[in-house]
Specification:
single chain, mainly alpha, Arc Repressor Mutant, subunit A, 4 domains, three-stranded antiparallel β-sheet
Amino acid sequence: MTKKTKLESYVQVRFGMDLYEFIKQKVQVDELYDYEIASLLEVKDSMITKLRNAYGIKRATGFSRRFDRRYGKGAVEKFKKMIENPTSTLDDIGRHFEFSKEYARQVYEKIYGYAYTEAYKRKRLIRRKMALTERTDRSNQFGGPTKVSKKTKFIRPGEEPILARSMTTKEVAKHLGLHGATVTKYAAKGEIPAVRIGRAWRFDKEAIDKWINRSQKKAILEAKKESTSDANPNIIKKSRKGSRGTTLKKKAGFKDHNQSAIIYKLRKQGKIEGERRSLYLEA
């Protein structure tokens, strides 16, 4: 009977498990070093090292024990309980143990053996589901119309909730036919109505529609102003004796300052000329 066979029989009788499970538990769960496991089984350290390598089990780092020594007994279990809570963040854990957020991330990787990224995504998904369930329960609890603010305000028939009227940068970009970066730039300059929440921009649908209407009216006025510059010479051509500024203003339907600018532009282009005060003849 070989030493390994004897050791397997000894572990089975004394601990009620096979040798592989025993070594795996002591290394990965209890984080015992090879010499500590050897002392339990009363064998040489080198034998445990050979068996552990043969089973493909990595050597214990001892990080959990060092963490417990530094931050108190049961610190690792406390860390695990906090990190597995969907509502807790790395900042919360760092404040509790009085270390940085980045070190909390490193502790997670040391204990669990993989990056915190996947755990963060999973926790974020759980938080969203919890928030959705909470809103649904609150709506069922009160019944009737859904509250949209802390004040006693209810949604009228045919009216959209506030959240439904809120638009993201991507939605506004699609609505206006612009690039998202352009919408963000307009929002930062105050050229488009928006509210900044953290790093994100939020847009009210009704305010965006009003802004579009104002922009369209402005474009129409600009186009009308340009068209008037071509209309004035036609008005002058109908009169052999020329036309006064008041006549031009009345026929074109513009204010004094607009008419003056247009007449100045036409005179500079050589399309009309002034013979007497406020009298313009075709050039």
